[in-house]
Amino acid sequence: MDYQIFKSDSRGGANHGWLNTRHSYSFANYYDPNRIHFGALRVVNDDIITGGMGFGKHPHDNMEIITIPMKGGISHQDSIGNGSIIESGDVQMMSAGTGVFHSEMNAYENQEGHFFQIWIIPNKQNVEPRYQQISVREVAKENELYQVLSPNPDDQGVWVYQDAWIFLGNYTEDKEETYKVQKEGNGVFFMVVEGEVEFEGNKLDRRDVIEITNTNEFSFKVSKNSRLMLIEVPMNF
């Protein structure tokens, strides 16, 4: 097994007043030639948006775009006819394919919205744009990982054009976990969203990340009151 640890303060980003954002990989005005992507994982942005503010209509193509709200709600509108509010407990996925315009605004005037936006490079180009939004409240489990994204339309969670998986975890007690890689050769982006994790003798705190490759499984110890996000992707990019 190979792994590399990135502390939360090593991320790029900026505070624009209405938007306080941190980037795990090069994005917008943040550029690090050593942090362009992790395999097919191109973007992991950690965004806090002031009430009523957000991103006006803008284009995307040939990218799988996933939004996972942590707090508040995001109002989504797009050029393929979708309009909705994505709340904490929901997961949204958009295959941009041949091209789509969309906007993302804080749905509430009087509270901050906090969400992760994740971009995954697809394994199919120029597909028809597609939108999917689900609630994961019914499948969310305490003290174990649960799947919210996969390559399979019939599987739990949303699906993408890529051999990729996302698992979340909410822990109210200390627990030792083992994650089994879903597809041989894939790597795993592992973020401590909240709380504390011990991995291979290393203490990891809020928003710290491990990039793990060349293994079929790995174990870690989760402290109570912790939240995790694991994104598994192919590495041949």
Give a quick summary of the entry.
This protein is mainly β and 237 residues long.
Feature tags:
single chain, 237 residues, mainly beta, Jelly Rolls, 7-stranded mixed beta sheet, 7-stranded antiparallel beta sheet, 55% strand, globular, Pirin_N_dom, metal ion binding, Pirin N-terminal domain-containing protein, iron
Notes on the protein architecture:
The protein has no helices and 22 strands. It has 237 residues and is mostly beta strands. The chain has one domain: Jelly Rolls (Sandwich), CATH 2.60.120.10. The strands form 4 sheets. It has a 7-stranded mixed β-sheet with strand order 1-20-17-22-15-13-14, with no helix packed on it. It has a 7-stranded antiparallel β-sheet with strand order 2-3-4-11-6-9-12, with no helix packed on it. Strands 5-10-7-8 form a 4-stranded antiparallel β-sheet, with no helix packed on it. A hairpin with a 3-residue loop joins β2 and β3. The chain is globular and about 45 Å long. The protein starts with a strand and ends with a strand. The mean pLDDT is 96.
CATH topology: Jelly Rolls
- The pLDDT mean sits at 96
Number of domains: 1
Class from secondary-structure proportions: mainly beta
* Percent in helix: under 10%
Largest sheet: 7 strands, mixed
CATH homologous superfamily caption: Jelly Rolls
Shape: globular
Low-confidence stretches: none
| Number of separate helices | 0
Radius of gyration: 17 Å
Number of strands: 22
CATH domain class name: Mainly Beta
CATH architecture: Sandwich
| Share of residues in strands | over 45%
Terminal residue distance: 19 Å
String of helices and strands: EEEEEEEEEEEEEEEEEEEEEE
Strand order of the largest sheet: 1-20-17-22-15-13-14
